[in-house]
């Protein structure tokens, strides 16, 4: 079992965007932070773990979202210490800076502050191509960031879409690689890599031409075909290392591109579309070949948009999805219904629920080995188990369904927590559609609830309607139990469901394979509730 405590993996790629071979330094990076280094980070006040592009993420003691890179000390040697020391000297608005370094259990954990957002890899996986002005934003932001690294005597050693993130304002930032890059890394190679990444991201349909815009005082918009052609020419030449028509330094590339086409913010896709990216893993590449561990997570499901709004669309066929490895959504607590007694009360409550479903935005938050978030614009974090006793986090007032459950409610069986675990797992599916309040599933003040509340603040601006999937529990095995806490392994499957965005686009997410999660339960005034989760 790996400690998930609401982990989230968004290291994804599209089927037409294979992940490049890892440099020697990247191979030293851990896929999952080890126990000793997690404990050291927690002791330093950091909580949460979320996979964001090429780095994990944590939440700082002051609540700020930070990137986290965890490396194996034995595979790096003293070179990593010098690189970290140099990274500490880099201060740039578009570069995540080193904030904290922790070493424990043979691992080195480096916390990078700033530069969090939606991985560019996810944006490209969903959209396929970007407007020329958006590409200019990428090149200028990342180009100046690389210039700051190069000035400090550092090379990135691989400018890839999973090391570039897009913030809420559509600006791009670089998450520098902490691991020393492999042989062949150099500032010139970084420039070629950035130019190649940008060139591949530009929407097709425009022929390239060599040379920048002739008038540096005039910056055409992205609708100027000649200017776009000039931009593509610069990127092509720079990617080839052609110093005559292209740029040879990162700063030069950023400046030349900025004079060619007017920059515009990078548009992040609707959360429903990104949810398909976040929650699915391809069972095979687009050509049918078996995926490798580095293939990432391509878009899952069929994306349908109204034809009038999407004359150009990129549809990815359905694929076998990974399970949504824990709670699926953060639902708003429902007020206790008021009305006459049965049978009138029953009809009134049903009508009220129907009205709420039609008007309330269901905020999506799935999990990979924990509470899956659609997570994108910021590195939304899922705290690890904090170790605080459950009774230290009193439960908030729950809605009527949670405060006064029926006598058959399995969560009230104090001596049968395995039955409660079954019930709580099934309730998670209802949370997706807002039919069940979070108080009916998680402990107030717990790592699960804290992460859920933090996510809601980031996602409430966008509307995504979700149909609740069917959750089938195959088995629940009691691991440990006492009067106030229990550990239960739950084996279950999640059925297919649909996401609908505000613009009418729908994304069909296929059923997931069976999986097992370890639920840490706490006894509350309302029965057993989930405090934290670990997934296999």
Automatic annotation (TrEMBL):
Stated name of the protein: Non-specific serine/threonine protein kinase
Compositional bias ranges of the Low complexity kind: 284-307, 389-407
UniProt xrefs under SUPFAM superfamilies: Protein kinase-like (PK-like)
Database matches in InterPro entries: Kinase-like_dom_sf
Region described as Disordered: 1-33, 284-312, 387-415
EC number: 2.7.11.1
Organism this protein belongs to: Luteimicrobium xylanilyticum
Keywords from the named record: Kinase, Membrane, Serine/threonine-protein kinase, Transferase, Transmembrane, Transmembrane helix
Molecular-function GO term, any one: protein serine/threonine kinase activity
Annotated TM spans: 362-381
């Amino acid at each position: 079992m790996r400690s998930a405590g609401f982990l989230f993996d968004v290291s994804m790629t599209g089927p037409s965007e294979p992940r490049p071979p890892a440099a020697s330094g990247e191979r030293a990076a851990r896929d999952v932070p080890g126990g000793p280094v997690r404990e050291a980070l927690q002791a330093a006040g950091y909580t949460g773990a979320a996979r964001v592009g090429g780095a994990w993420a944590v939440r700082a003691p002051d609540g700020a979202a930070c990137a986290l890179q965890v490396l194996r000390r034995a595979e790096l040697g003293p070179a990593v210490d010098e690189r970290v020391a140099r990274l500490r000297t880099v201060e740039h608005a578009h570069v995540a800076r080193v904030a904290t370094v922790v070493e424990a259990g043979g691992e080195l954990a480096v916390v990078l502050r700033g530069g969090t957002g939606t991985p560019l890899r996810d944006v490209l996986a969903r959209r396929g191509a970007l407007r020329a002005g958006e590409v200019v934003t990428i090149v200028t932001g990342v180009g100046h960031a690389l210039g700051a690294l190069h000035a400090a005597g550092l090379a990135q050693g691989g400018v890839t879409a999973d090391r570039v993130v897009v913030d809420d304002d559509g600006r791009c930032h670089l998450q520098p690689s902490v691991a020393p890059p492999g042989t062949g890394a150099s500032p010139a190679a970084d420039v070629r890599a950035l130019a190649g990444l940008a060139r591949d991201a530009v929407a097709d349909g425009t022929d390239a031409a060599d040379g920048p815009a002739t008038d540096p005082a005039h910056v055409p918009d992205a609708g100027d075909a000649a200017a776009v052609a000039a931009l593509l020419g610069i990127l092509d030449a720079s990617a080839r290392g052609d110093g005559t028509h292209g740029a040879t330094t990162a700063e030069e590339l950023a400046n030349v591109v900025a004079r060619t086409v007017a920059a515009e913010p990078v548009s992040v896709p609707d959360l429903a579309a990104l949810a398909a990216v976040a929650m699915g893993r391809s069972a095979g590449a687009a050509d049918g070949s078996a995926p490798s561990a580095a293939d990432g997570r391509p878009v899952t499901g069929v994306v349908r948009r109204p034809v009038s709004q999407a004359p150009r669309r990129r549809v990815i066929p359905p694929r076998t999805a990974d399970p949504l490895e824990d709670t699926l959504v953060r639902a708003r607590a429902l007020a206790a219904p008021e009305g006459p007694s049965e049978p009138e009360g029953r009809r009134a409550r049903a009508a009220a629920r129907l009205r709420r479903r039609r008007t309330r935005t269901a905020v999506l938050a799935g999990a990979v080995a924990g509470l899956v978030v659609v997570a994108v614009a910021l590195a939304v974090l899922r705290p690890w188990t904090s170790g605080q006793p459950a009774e230290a986090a009193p439960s908030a007032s729950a809605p009527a369904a949670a405060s006064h459950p029926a006598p058959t409610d399995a969560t009230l069986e104090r001596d049968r927590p395995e039955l409660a675990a079954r019930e709580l797992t099934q309730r998670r599916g209802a949370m997706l559609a807002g039919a069940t309040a979070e108080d009916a599933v998680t402990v107030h003040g717990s790592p699960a609830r804290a992460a859920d509340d933090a996510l809601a603040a980031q996602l409430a601006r966008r509307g995504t309607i979700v149909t609740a999937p069917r959750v089938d529990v195959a088995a629940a095995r009691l691991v440990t139990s006492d009067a106030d806490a229990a550990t239960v392994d739950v084996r279950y499957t999640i059925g297919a469901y649909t996401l609908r965005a505000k613009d009418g686009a729908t994304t069909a997410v296929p059923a997931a394979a069976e999986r097992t999660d370890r639920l840490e339960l706490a006894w509350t005034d309302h029965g057993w509730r989930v405090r934290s989760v670990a997934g296999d």
